[in-house]
Write a structure and sequence with these properties.
Length: 168
């Protein structure tokens, strides 16, 4: 687990090869193992394999254009009718991170493409996927096999950690 946490990076170049059904199943199970406020489990997951849909997404969203070379993406959405108070984004973020880690564990490259809280993106993605009003698009996770091996980096910044009070 430790290796997975520290080896996950955003990968935007993919090679040929599908995400196997077994791995997809594992990834989706991991997504639903994420915590949600008051255990509402307000998330749903749209698995998008259709290349025409990938093209449409890439045309509308410059920052998700890597989808063109990937076999699959998962659109993480939340149901605002079910979510507890304003916690829909946090619930969907936890599920998104679980998807990234599960896919990394199975050897895939992934990238989290943000949708929430960019109103233009939220509206255009909702339209593209015919989402009902209460189903809010949160993120698009692109997943694929990759040859990219990112250089190990050190993100540790001790000054980001404070103890007991801010000024102590
Ligand atoms: C909320 C959020 C939105 C993001 N949106 C995009 C995106 O639209 N396109 C993209 O290529 N990467 C996106 N990323 C990935 C970040 O650019 C990436 O996580 C960051 O540069 C750190 O790199 P790392 O993931 O390799 O650690 C997003 C990440 C987060 C958490």
């Amino acid at each position: 687990m430790e290796d997975i946490l520290f080896s996950r990076r955003s990968i935007r170049e993919y090679i040929n090869g599908d995400v196997s059904e077994k791995d997809l199943n594992y990834i989706l199970h991991a997504a639903m193992a994420a915590p949600t406020a008051m255990n509402t489990r307000c998330y749903s997951f749209l698995v998008i394999k259709d290349k025409n849909m990938h093209k449409k997404i890439a045309m509308q969203h410059e920052s998700a254009k890597m989808i063109i070379s990937a076999p699959l993406a998962i659109l993480v959405v939340g149901d605002s009718n079910i979510a507890f108070k304003g916690f829909l984004p946090q619930d969907c973020a936890a599920a998104t991170q679980n998807i990234l880690l599960a896919a990394t564990a199975r050897g895939y490259g992934t990238v989290w493409c943000g949708i929430y809280s960019n109103l233009n993106k939220e509206v255009s993605v909702a339209k593209l996927f015919n989402l009902p009003k209460n189903i809010k698009p949160f993120s698009l996770v692109v997943i694929g096999k990759t040859n990219v091996k990112p250089i190990k980096r050190n993100v540790w910044q001790p000054e980001k950690v404070k103890y007991e009070t801010w000024n102590k």
